[in-house]
Amino acid sequence: MKKILIVEDNDMNMKLFYDVLSYNNYNVVKAFDGLDAFEKIEHDNFDLIILDMLLPKMDGFSLIKKLKDENIKYPKIIVVSACAMDADKQKALALGIENYLTKPIDINNFLKVVKENLS
Description:
alpha/beta, Rossmann fold, 5-stranded parallel β-sheet, 5 helices, 45% helix
């Protein structure tokens, strides 16, 4: 079973992502801020990360940069963010993020992107 880390501070979004992914037979782990996510990535192996960019304690951009700076191995990341500005998307792409979805998400497209990144 593929293991996915969801990094999301909004309870409703977390519940939506968790429920959809669990229903589709993924092992889902939750992190509600960037520091918690960093610790989980540092000590566990994930097949995919679903990452919000606006997070408490450490935002998504800083989390990705810290993982790279400390040479910590991490899987593909799908950014799911309310930051719909092109500058935010370009900043994420510059960090090596291939998938940037904006909220509110289309569940069918979200699942398609998840499956593509896990195959």
